[in-house]
Amino acid sequence: MFALCGELDFDSAVQLQEAADSVLTGPDQPRLVVVDCTALAFCDSSGIGGLIKIYQQLSAHSGALRIAAVPGSVARVLALTGLDRVIPVHPTAETALNGGGAPSDAAAPGRALGERSAGR
Description:
- By secondary structure, the protein is an alpha/beta fold.
- It is built from 4 helices and 5 strands; from the N terminus they run E-H-E-H-E-H-E-H-E.
- Helix 1 (10-24) runs parallel beside helix 2.
- The termini are far apart.
């Protein structure tokens, strides 16, 4: 599971992709990755692109990506881009991990990405 916080923008999307690559290219690739957006305040096109790349990586190996606990402003971005119709969005990380009869072997460990300092 990846836990995002703050902003998912150009810089943090690179961090997310690097973290995902380290998990998805290893010998024990997970079949399910959950992105927990509970503490995510903002997502731009770079963030959307990062999520799409992870989705494509997982799909290429019969894996699944689920997004969880999306705040309103980020949910709007997902809806406007149509990403919420491609990647399942769940109300909580728990339902994302257990929902739909999909594999329960989610990526670990959890990671907090995208934190921004107040002085940005």
